[in-house]
Amino acid sequence: MSIIAWTPALSVGISEFDAQHQQLLEMFNDLFGMIRNDGDKTQLALLITRIIEYTNKHFANEEFYLAKYQYPQLEQHKAQHLRLSAEALDIQQRYAAAPQTFPIMDVFLFFRTGLIRHFYNVDPLYTKFLHAHGLS
Ligand SMILES: [Fe+2]
Ligand SMILES: [Fe+2]
Question: Which helix (H) or strand (E) holds 2?
Answer without folding.
Answer: none
